[in-house]
Design brief:
Elements lengths: L5 E7 L10 E6 L2 H12 L3 E5 L14 E13 L2 E18 L5 E6 L8 H15 L1 H10 L5 H11 L4 H9 L2 H19 L3
Parallel strand pairs: 1-3
Antiparallel strand pairs: 1-6, 2-5, 3-4, 4-5, 5-6
């Protein structure tokens, strides 16, 4: 049986993705985004963080998979709001409602059991971080979970890959995400080392 659908205000992220067990700090300046944050704050502190499609012609042109996020910080700044979001769970967009502020009906998505697939991903991440100590230090500060998938999700969110590749990783359940990030990290490291 699938999880019940929920309704959440929508915060378009631009060219970044938020993954479960990861956090994101950003400045929201768009009026619709600020209203979505306000609505989230008044209705339990959760929202759907989702990236617009690359060829978005309107604010409604969003990817169909985003992340349910907990609003953990909301501070006014000049011209906007500084917010921090903690990723909770991937969610599929079912219906999009509203004009001024978007509200989404979403279906929480099961991550799936990463099984043994996370091991190869974490090993590939360790190899990559060995060559990039500054990134390791940054990820250590960002880590919210001791679960190995927390490391994989952080890698998906922060590694130097295209927004399209990042979105494809978010759309993948945990086992496939582990396989993809493992292959991707090894390929990235070989390219950087000139192999």
């Amino acid at each position: 049986m699938s999880a019940p659908h929920i309704f959440l205000p929508v915060l378009p992220l631009g060219d970044v993705c938020l993954f479960p067990e990861s956090s994101l700090v950003m400045i929201v300046t768009a009026p619709a985004g600020q209203r979505a944050v306000e609505l989230a704050r008044r209705t339990g502190g959760r929202l759907l963080a989702v990236s617009p499609k690359e060829s978005a012609a309107s604010p409604r042109d969003l990817h169909t998979v985003g992340t349910v996020a907990e609003l953990t910080e909301d501070t006014p700044v000049d011209g906007g709001r500084r917010i921090e979001l903690d990723g909770v769970q991937r969610a599929g967009l079912v219906t999009l409602l509203g004009v001024d502020v978007l509200v989404a009906e979403v279906e929480p998505l099961d991550e799936g059991d990463a099984g043994d697939d996370w091991g190869a991903a974490v090993e590939a991440l360790a190899r990559y971080l060995h060559a990039h100590q500054e990134l390791r230090s940054f990820l250590d500060q960002q880590r919210r979970s001791k679960d190995p998938m927390g490391w994989v999700n952080l890698a998906c969110q922060h590694l130097p890959i295209t927004s399209t590749a990042r979105q494809k990783l978010l759309e993948s359940a945990a086992p496939e995400r582990c396989r993809r990030i493992s292959r991707g990290l090894d390929a990235l490291l070989k390219k950087e080392q000139g192999a």
